[in-house]
Amino acid sequence: MNKHRFGSPAAATIFMQVHPHLHGKRGVDLLHEPLLNKGTAFTERERDALGLRGLLPPRITTQQEQLARVLETVRNKPTDLERYIYLVSLQERNENLFYRLMTDYIGEMMPLIYTPTVGLACQRYALIFRRPRGLFISLRDRGHVKQILQNWPHADVRMIVVTDGERILGLGDLGTNGMGIPVGKLSLYTACAGVAPELCLPVTIDVGTNNQELRDDTHYLGLRQPRERGAAYDGLIDEFVNAVQDIFPLACIQFEDFGNANAFRLLQQYRDRICTFNDDIQGTASVALAGILSALRISGASLSSQCFLFQGAGEAGIGIGELLVGALRAEGLSEADARRRCWYVDSKGLIVASRQDLSSHKRNFAHDHPGTKTLLAAVEALRPTMLIGVSGMAGAFDERVVQAMGKLNPHPVIFALSNPTSKAECTAAQAYTWTEGRAIFASGSPFPDFTLHGRTHQPGQGNNAYIFPGVGLGIIASQAQRVTDEMFFVAAKVLAGKVTDGDLSVGRVYPDLHRIREVSAAIAEAVAEVVFERGLTTMRRPVNLFERVQALMYDPNYTEYV
Fold it and tell me: What is the pTM of this model?
């Protein structure tokens, strides 16, 4: 019966017209399209209609049965890197099933597909490379970037994550190996906020690497030359940005893991011209501010009474400081007073006005004060209420530093935000042990629960995944033409508002990860509201903005094709 109904070419043509989302895919081609493939879940009718008969094992399984199988497979892998490799291969053959797994088990899967495992995956990129994912644009492609973008199979790209690989997490210059970062980030856009995967494009711009070990590695897949600077670098970035405006005019460009020398200036150069942001600067700032606001609910203090000391004055640290200045000014402080609440220690000691070696992004936080050479001396001199680590220096918060914070504050706030886990300034266990359980702790990568004196602490993970997916969804929902700091400020307030008293009672300053799609939807609505209020779009405001956001959120359940 099925043969008579779907077996003729005419019937197949009519079927494809009714189901245009299949893009004419049938048979093996359909099984090789990860956005459409359902594997053994194709029904009898679908197998006949789509030329799949005989190409699949005879038993038909549900998505839930497939989910149980892949979950067991992931858990049985011997190492996290093997789990990462398996998950990437699953994503490459069946995206709906991959995102069903990610969505239902986000707390378990996110550390595998992103930090901390993605750091090791980037370091081993050439050895675990299976299939290319995303677009690679190198210095050799000057003058042809537009054609490269046109090679991408999806015409309606809305979110681009691009890196040049110079500062991958806390691991440094990994060149083209850094492609794991934009791929992983965009996976989180979909898993955490429901941004449809076909709207996402990962890009790596290869301008060489200053990592001599990589240049000497015969397996390295990027340009084996020193990293390009100056006019050639700027010209390639500008060509890429302009080509995106031509090919994907509704796309937002997220700059990711660029070195300090380029990150700040590229953000300043393009932020008022195109829809763009830098997650290392603005996203990190937003998630940190949310954690700070939540911590104040535990300590009972006000934001304006705090003194912040940062270990690290790069993109993340300065980004947090700038957003904090805005938050403090909203509480009535002058800009000078707000900046005076933020202090920084870099590799040469406390950042003070008398230093002559400061880059431009540090000077706004260089105050009149005697210099100190060590973090401990800075803690003792400044008596901070909050200590924030964004340095990539493992162990920078040693026992003496943390104990000093505990002596100064009944509830010392200690955020060790550097990624991956191996670069954290201290562990959760250390922060709680050295303060007799009084610390309010958060980290960039996850740490397990820790029990001290009969009380179990659940450390919060200050992961940017709480912020950037929701911000991106809001940008897409409103067709924003620009991205502003105000959007990250409202995102931080929404995130902090989603922290429950139950979360705080166990010391967690962020919501449970299982609620992240709810959080992202709320952030997206707030961001879109800013876009419409500030006139940052030509789109007409929907009657119900939240319904608009929800309608855009991708559902990883299978679609019935027949």
Answer: 0.93
